[in-house]
Amino acid sequence: MRAIGGISAVMMLWLVMSIAPAQQGRRYYVSPAGSDENAGARAAPLKTIAHALALTKPGDTVIVADGTYGESLELRRGGDSDARRVTLQAEHPRMAIIAPKGRALTLEADYVTARGLVFDAQYGNNTCVWAKGQGIHFIDCEIRRAGRITGPGRYGDGLQFFDSRDGLVQDCYIHHNLASDGTSRDDSHGVRFTHSYNMTVRGCKIELCSGDCIQADPSREPWDNVLVEDCELYGGRMPPNDPFAHPRYPPTMAPGENGIDTKCDPEAPRPRIVIRNCLVGGFRGPIGNAAAFNLKERCDALVDRCTVFDNVICFRLRGPGSRGGSHVTVTNCVMHSSDIGVRYENKIEQLRLWNNTWGGAIREAFLSGGGYGEGFEVKNCLFLAPSKPSEASDPSNLAVSTSAFVVAADNDWGQGDFHLAPGSPAIDRGVALEQVKTDGDGVPRPQGAGWDVGAYERR
Ligand SMILES: [Ca+2]
Ligand SMILES: [Ca+2]
Q: What's the gap in Å between 257 CA and the centre of ligand 1?
């Protein structure tokens, strides 16, 4: 690099950037020991988060000390750009708890970041966090106890987005969203997207929700471009000695419907959803056909590099009904320890299953619920089974025994490692599928002489 007057261009850039006013707003401090008569300095904090939020301008940050706050927050003025956000953050991650009985946060503003906070609706018959706006980020937050114990009324979801764009939910723990008044079980989703675009859920764990971990869009409005990656989505079973117990969901009950469920506007362009590198499991009721993935109604879905286990159905993929059918591509996924691998329904069209592994303890690799239609392709798929299912008659698919894998057993319940063993008959036996550019680890395909069969390329 050529130096400029003894200072390199990189150093110049660094100097300029350190002088530039990125997020140079005011900081307001809040503490249970504070007073709203104070100005909000660290040494003289405010008492309520609401008071601090009312003072904020674009670029400002509210820092919340450890403690429990009974406020139902509303924020209707945010930042004016990505660089000048309004930030609401815990002084110590997950040590500031916003816990009214009911809605913890209503956010109708752009460019807001919530970081490190716990939102707890305490089954107060409402959504825990409601958001509407552009560039809203939830990072390292915990969202819990949406739903209700007594009814009737609204019951809500953990985190709802309406009419939003460019949203991010990252490294959050969203759990115990449960609704029932004792007469019926109601949906309470972990994250709901309605009429929202370019939304990302990344690095989150979502579990123990009486609806779906993620649903777009229960209102069947237009939406597009949802990305879910590096997440753990579990139906789960209610644990014993649960500090967040719900009386209608006793220990050992499986509350969850689906990991991801789609509903779509029948008229709008097909909304696209990409799900990659996720663990999705534990969907065993209480509904019939409980499935990790329930992809339906004209969504255009790509599921890549996911491990899907302990479900009634791993993939429930649904074709044209009165609301249209989904188009689904599944690549580099491993299924195991489930009743059914793939249930295809209603003459689903454009269903492509490429380079997936059906591992141990799957009772039925495929189940037809009304057959398949045009564009049904099963290629480079690997089955731990005595023979291939009829849907996988293409010669690029293989049935193998346990010795094909690093660790596998026919009745494996989660202990397996479905990478290929040395000398596995699946090595280099697939057809060239240019669309499948990487394997289940994200390693480029092909390695060696050609595409391996199944989710992983042997290196
Ligand atoms: Ca559902
Ligand atoms: Ca290979």
A: 6
Distances (CA, A) of 241 to 151, 185, 356, 403: 25, 22, 38, 41
Looking at all shown ligands, the one closest to residue 263's CA atom is: 1
Q: Where are the domains positioned within the chain?
A: 23-261, 288-459
How many Å lie between the centroid of ligand 2 and the Cα of residue 147? 49
Decide which of 204 and 2 is more confident. Answer: 204
Q: How far is the CA of 296 from the centre of ligand 1 (A)?
A: 11
374 alpha carbon – ligand 2 mean position (Å): 29
pLDDT at site 300: 98
Are 365 and 393 contacting, i.e. CB atoms less than 8 angstroms apart? no
Rounded Cα distance, 369 and 64, in Å? 52
Q: What is the mean pLDDT of residues 84-94?
A: 98
DSSP 225: E
CA distances from 97 to 43, 257, 420 (A): 21, 28, 46
Structure tokens at 215: 């649903």
Distance 15 CA to ligand 2 centre (A): 48
Mean pLDDT of all residues in 427-454: 97
pLDDT, tens digit, 9 for 90 and up, residues 132-156: 999 999 999 999 999 988 876 668 9
Tell me how far the alpha carbon of residue 216 lies from the centroid of ligand 1, in angstroms.
Answer: 10
Domain 23-261 homologous superfamily, CATH: Single-stranded right-handed beta-helix, Pectin lyase-like (2.160.20.10)
User: Given a cut of 70, is residue 285 above it in pLDDT?
Assistant: yes
Q: Is 279 exposed, middle or buried (0-12, 13-18, 19+ CB in 10 A)?
A: middle
d(CA 102, CA 104): 6
Dig out the tokens for 67 from the structure.
Answer: 């403690």
Question: Which residues sit with Cβ closer than 5 angstroms to ligand 2, an ion?
Answer: 428, 446-448, 452
